[in-house]
Amino acid sequence: MRYRVCTLFVSIMVLSACGKKEPAQPDVVAAPIAAAAAPAPAPVAAPDEGDEPAPAPEAEPVAEPGGEAEPAAPDEPVAEPAAEPSGALMDPSRCAALIARELALIRDSGTDEMRTSAAARTEEELVATCASAPVPAAYEQCVSQVATASDIYRTCVAAVFQGRDLTVGRTFKALEDNSGAEPPALEVDGDTMSFGTCRMIHQKVGNFRAFFVDCPGKATLGPLTTGDDIKASIAALREESANAHATVLGIMNNYPRGGGRWRVCQNGQCRIE
Question: Is pLDDT of 236 > 90?
Answer without folding.
Answer: yes
